[in-house]
């Protein structure tokens, strides 16, 4: 994420906010979307992501703040004067026009006569060259959405805005279209800003994800960074599953924080702690389920020293394909979840078995226990 002077095509939001009467849909936010990136606004329904997108599109007047695109302040420009285009969940194709004419529409409206080369190129880009003479209703949902993308790209916008564009597709098609949109973005190289409530979708496609909550950007980062280093419990829980253990800070060395949880001791790297962590204070210690090793209590002596460890009892197991999910009863974390690859599975790990959960301190993160 750039914080310096706006380079040629970055989208920059400066203190932009939106209120409806006394209700604040988007609190003033500063955000820079680097030119050529695939950027996702991710959050639950009502968090303000569509309103933010619509302010970039010019479809919603901000209550405060500014939107600029490169060196151009576009805050008060109408949508059609901005070098952006939007793809909506409802494809909004013209039913009476064939696919070629749907894509050609933007060029014809500008008075261009010879459109064939450009339309053919665009149809090839979205892999619909063969379907040019069909009507929209003769295509599948995924194909119709690709026509909508081609139509939005034909006038070479600097930024393509996508508002839940895959929301109407079934899961399998949605997964295919995610990869397809990513390929198209890489090929055309323009900025895509994509709104979604689906964390897997944002993680699959985006270079940078802004996680929104209650009209604010809660955390901004690459998918891997958000997953590995969540800074709030909301982000930790919204992106995948987190086990959160309430622990008490015992000591700090400058590099590591040592915490007590029940009768156990946990070590957390200072750099991965987003909480104030005063000695004697509480921290939520987080660990992702797949980072944990599950060892039968009889073999506890074989666990290497230096690993964080918690004891518990297996409450339930369920087979989920390549791995098995275990739910563990532990005095420090209710419903501790652990995923174990089936090839590593120990036949003794059945409900009722006493176990030790252990993991590397390097995979541990710390969150503010006082946060709402
Ligand atoms: P969804 O995924 O359901 O579309 P969202 O995160 O995109 O949700 P927004 O559509 O941006 O959320 O809406 C944010 C908040 O602003 C919601 O509480 C919504 O009810 C409210 N809101 C949006 N538009 C208006 C409006 N025109 N008048 C009043 N409130 C509005």
Automatic annotation (TrEMBL):
<dbReference type="InterPro" id="IPR003593">
    <property type="entry name" value="AAA+_ATPase"/>
</dbReference>
<dbReference type="Pfam" id="PF00005">
    <property type="entry name" value="ABC_tran"/>
</dbReference>
<comment type="similarity">
    <text>Belongs to the ABC transporter superfamily. Spermidine/putrescine importer (TC 3.A.1.11.1) family.</text>
</comment>
<keyword id="KW-1003">Cell membrane</keyword>
<feature type="domain" description="ABC transporter">
    <location>
        <begin position="11"/>
        <end position="239"/>
    </location>
</feature>
<keyword id="KW-0547">Nucleotide-binding</keyword>
<keyword id="KW-0067">ATP-binding</keyword>
<comment type="function">
    <text>Part of the ABC transporter complex PotABCD involved in spermidine/putrescine import. Responsible for energy coupling to the transport system.</text>
</comment>
<dbReference type="InterPro" id="IPR013611">
    <property type="entry name" value="Transp-assoc_OB_typ2"/>
</dbReference>
<dbReference type="Pfam" id="PF08402">
    <property type="entry name" value="TOBE_2"/>
</dbReference>
<dbReference type="InterPro" id="IPR003439">
    <property type="entry name" value="ABC_transporter-like_ATP-bd"/>
</dbReference>
<dbReference type="GO" id="GO:0005524">
    <property type="term" value="F:ATP binding"/>
</dbReference>
<dbReference type="InterPro" id="IPR017871">
    <property type="entry name" value="ABC_transporter-like_CS"/>
</dbReference>
<dbReference type="InterPro" id="IPR005893">
    <property type="entry name" value="PotA-like"/>
</dbReference>
<dbReference type="InterPro" id="IPR008995">
    <property type="entry name" value="Mo/tungstate-bd_C_term_dom"/>
</dbReference>
<protein>
    <recommendedName>
        <fullName>Spermidine/putrescine import ATP-binding protein PotA</fullName>
        <ecNumber>7.6.2.11</ecNumber>
    </recommendedName>
</protein>
<dbReference type="InterPro" id="IPR027417">
    <property type="entry name" value="P-loop_NTPase"/>
</dbReference>
<keyword id="KW-0813">Transport</keyword>
<keyword id="KW-1278">Translocase</keyword>
<dbReference type="InterPro" id="IPR050093">
    <property type="entry name" value="ABC_SmlMolc_Importer"/>
</dbReference>
<dbReference type="InterPro" id="IPR017879">
    <property type="entry name" value="PotA_ATP-bd"/>
</dbReference>
<comment type="subunit">
    <text>The complex is composed of two ATP-binding proteins (PotA), two transmembrane proteins (PotB and PotC) and a solute-binding protein (PotD).</text>
</comment>
<keyword id="KW-0472">Membrane</keyword>
């Amino acid at each position: 994420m750039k914080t310096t002077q706006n380079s040629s095509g970055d989208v920059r939001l400066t203190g932009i906010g939106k209120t409806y009467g006394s209700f604040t849909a988007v609190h003033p936010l500063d955000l820079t979307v680097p030119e050529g990136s695939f950027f996702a606004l991710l959050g639950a329904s009502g968090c303000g992501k569509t309103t933010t997108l619509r302010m970039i599109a010019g479809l919603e007047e901000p209550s405060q703040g500014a939107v600029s695109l490169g060196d151009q302040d576009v805050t008060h420009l109408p949508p059609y004067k901005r070098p952006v285009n939007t793809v909506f969940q409802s494809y909004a194709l013209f039913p009476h026009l064939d696919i070629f004419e749907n894509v050609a529409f933007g060029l014809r409206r500008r008075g261009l006569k010879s459109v064939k080369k450009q339309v053919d190129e665009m149809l090839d880009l979205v892999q619909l060259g063969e379907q040019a003479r069909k009507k929209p209703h003769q295509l599948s949902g995924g194909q119709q959405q690709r026509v909508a993308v081609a139509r939005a790209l034909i006038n070479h916008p600097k930024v393509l805005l996508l508002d839940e564009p895959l929301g109407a597709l079934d899961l399998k098609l949605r997964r295919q279209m995610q990869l397809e949109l990513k390929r198209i973005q890489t090929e055309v190289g323009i900025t895509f800003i994509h709104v979604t409530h689906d964390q897997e979708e944002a993680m699959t496609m985006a270079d940078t994800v802004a996680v929104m909550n209650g009209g604010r950007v809660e955390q901004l980062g690459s998918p891997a960074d958000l997953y590995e280093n969540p800074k709030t419990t909301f982000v930790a829980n919204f992106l995948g599953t987190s086990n959160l253990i309430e622990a008490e800070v015992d000591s700090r060395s400058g590099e590591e924080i040592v915490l007590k949880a029940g009768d156990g001791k946990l070590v957390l790297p200072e750099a991965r702690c987003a909480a104030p962590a005063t000695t004697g204070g509480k921290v939520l210690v987080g660990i992702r389920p797949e980072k944990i090793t599950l060892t039968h209590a009889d073999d506890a002596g074989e666990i290497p020293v230096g690993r964080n460890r918690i004891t518990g009892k297996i409450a339930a197991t369920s087979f989920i394909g390549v791995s098995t999910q275990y739910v563990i009863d532990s005095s420090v974390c209710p419903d501790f979840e652990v995923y174990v690859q089936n090839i590593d599975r120990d036949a003794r790990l059945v409900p009722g078995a006493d176990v030790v959960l252990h993991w590397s301190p390097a995979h541990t993160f710390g969150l503010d226990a006082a946060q709402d």
